[in-house]
Amino acid sequence: MSVATDQARVVDGVKAEQWTRIYRRMVMIREFEEQVNELYTRALMPGLAHLYIGEEAVAVGICEALRRTDYITSTHRGHGHCLAKGASPDRMFAELLGKEAGYCRGKGGSMHIADPATGNLGANAIVGGSAGIATGAALSSKRLGTGQVTVCFFGEGALGQGVLYEVMNLAALGKLPVIYVCENNLYNEYTHYSETTAGDMLARGAAFGVHAESVDGQDVRTVYGTAQRLVGRARKGEGPAFLVCNTYRYMGHHVGDINREYYRSKQEEQEWKAKRDPIKNFAEWMIAQKVADTAALEEMHKEVRAEMKAAVEFAIAAPYPKPEEAEQGVYA
Amino acid sequence: MPEVAVRELTFAQAVREALAEEMRRDPRVCIFGEDVAEAGTPFKVLSGLVEEFGRERVLDTPISEAGFTGMGVGAAMTGLRPVVDIMFGDFLTLTMDQLVNQAAKVHYMSGGNWKVPMVLRTTLGATRRSAAQHSQSLHAWLSHVPGLKVAMPSTPYDAKGLLKTAIRDDNPVVFFEDKMMYKLKGPVPEEDYTIPFGVAEVKREGQDITIVATSSMVQVALGAAEMLEKVGLSAEVIDPRTTWPLDEKTLAESAKKTSRAIVVDEGYGRYGVTGEIASVIAEGAFYSLDAPVKRMGAMHVPIPFSPPLEDMTVPTEQMVFEAARAMCGKG
Questions:
Q1: Lowest CB count within 10 Å: A116, A165, B7, B328, which one?
Q2: CATH number of the domain at A10-313, please?
Q3: Which alpha helices (H) appear in chain A, and where do they start and end?
Q4: Contact between residue A193 and residue A156 where contact means Cβ atoms under 8 Å apart
Q5: Number of domains chain B is built from
Q6: Is residue B194, in this structure, part of any structural domain at all?
Q7: Is B171 domain-assigned?
Q8: B180 shares its domain with B77
Q9: How far is B234 from chain A (nearest CA, A)?
Q10: pLDDT digits over A135-148, tens only?
Q11: Helices vs. strands in chain B: H and E counts, helices first
Q12: Residue B226 domain-assigned (yes or no)
């Protein structure tokens, strides 16, 4: 990678090379999702695709604070979480296309990527469906003394699911090392969260004695710094946390959700994209801090786009699972 | 039943012994549920376990069936082997997403990346005067779901052996115990043994009619077989022991031999275990059958509280006896 600056230099307590890596990962997620959009519109992708574009700083900021062995659970809008935790784009695209080379042998698809090698317990297509699993993983880590932390990603739509509060209570009672990360992208599918969410979001975690706070989910530096602090306290045995990341879903609920004006205006979308884009704003900061220059960042975009295109080509060329695979693996 | 089994335990003691032995054998095995620790559950099945294994391994939870079942799934995926206690089978409704959408699917949906070695113990059975929300037998619901296994012991011996198999299985197993059977006594070996899933047991051999019975209905079927013997009819009683995997071969072979079959199960007859087993027998023994396979399940009503009404909802020895006798042309 051609980044012109001294990558060993420390800015804000973090080496320039790490800021560059963070940036690159956000770009990777965006380019990945652009390719998904492309695959979908070219009718090459079966099923549904829920794109993460606009929310990249959340997944990357959080996962940057995690170890490879730490656990995450993800959601139907999960490509970003999986990539941020270290999944490889070629096997992800293969999964999205239902190919045998995919992370789940093609049996899970876009909403169910799971990868033990990166601690990914699986993306879950039931809203709030992974809250129990994440809490159980944290229980294991505590009982087995492994020091692992679990991050449970979910959207603000999951705040309507009772099981989330059941497990927050359990996690608080057991002082479990789990962080419930709520990505508030403002919309539960096609409905603004204010129509579905009464009272104070943070109070919902605080009521159980779960440490609760919110951050600007468009600012990867803030997300990362907050995540480091919360992961640190979880790892030290100080118990669970509830982190609301305020963010925005640039695209529709899924790729086919094109005409969105009945639930939000184009002007609103444009304002977020113009003023609060996590990648653009971070690039400006990196350039201002001389962590990287414009040419280097542009070069990086090109590289990442080429990598994603190659990954797509790999997935398109990869074979489907054999027919007998349908009945295999129901039981371990 | 093996000759060595001389010691008698109650069904509840057999369950407890299986848990205690497995917890001694494998430190990853743990229990969680409502009032499982000092209280040992309302049925006292778990009494004494917390004293031996401590509150970390015998964990009292809030009344949050979905939450702690989900926690069991995640714990099972990441290195523990939880035995989740759902006090009444009726509360399974609260755990359904965790069991059906999570536990049952994790292995397949992840392409074999993750597995869920979890046991969910719960109860079934009416006639305890507990009314409609504490008396159901919902095992058919879970037998319907690929990815789950369902065990239904009918004796203390089977309870110990099947529970050990369940705990050692790498898949989610739902283990149904009949509440009314906890005090039933029977021989249970002191040594370690397991009973394989998907292997039916012939509880009584016979020639004239096959009675397939599960869990609470096995004793009923054996009682009916005694009554049938007195009128000169020899009934074979078969207990599948697991509704999934299901030992289709043994069921069909018995029906081929006797040419008649009744299936008795405490779940509802409609769309239930009796229907599935009847169809397995019809498919596997059609040309040997002298009569349509008969199904006997719970009356298709919410279980009523009033004792005389409740008693009518569950098949009895007399009902099974009469049905069998009629089927054999001696009614």
A1: B7
A2: 3.40.50.970
A3: 16-41, 56-64, 79-84, 89-96, 131-144, 162-174, 201-206, 220-235, 266-275, 278-288, 294-317
A4: yes
A5: 2
A6: no
A7: yes
A8: yes
A9: 39
A10: 999 999 999 999 99
A11: 12, 14
A12: yes
Q: Which among A71, A146, A169 is the nearest to B64, CB-wise?
A: A169
- Nearest Cα of chain A lies from the Cα of B274 at a distance, in angstroms, of 24
Q: Quick one: tokens of A266?
A: 């184009």
Query: Which residues lie closer than 8 Å to B278 by C-beta, 6 or more apart?
Result: B261, B263, B293, B294, B295
Residues B164 and B226 in one domain: no
Please confirm, yes or no, whether B144 is among the known catalytic residues: no
> Are residue B162 and residue B258 in the same domain, yes or no?
no
Establish if B196 belongs to a structural domain.
no
Q: How many Cβ atoms are within 10 Å of A116's Cβ, its own excluded?
A: 15
Active-site position among B107, B134, B139, B144: B134
Residues B210, B313, single domain; the answer is yes
Which of A105, A120, A141, A143 best probes binding to B when mutated, by most B CB atoms within 10 angstroms? A143
Residues of A in contact with B74 (CB under 8 A): 73, 121, 132-140, 150
Q: Which helix (H) or strand (E) holds B216?
A: helix B216-230
Beta strands in chain B (DSSP E): 8-10, 29-33, 58-60, 81-86, 119-124, 149-151, 173-178, 185-187, 201-204, 209-213, 235-239, 242-244, 261-268, 294-298
**How would residue B3 be classed by pLDDT, with cut points 50, 70 and 90?**
low
pLDDT in tens, A3-13: 667 888 999 99
Domain span at residue B113 reads 8-187
Paired tokens of B265 = 């199960």
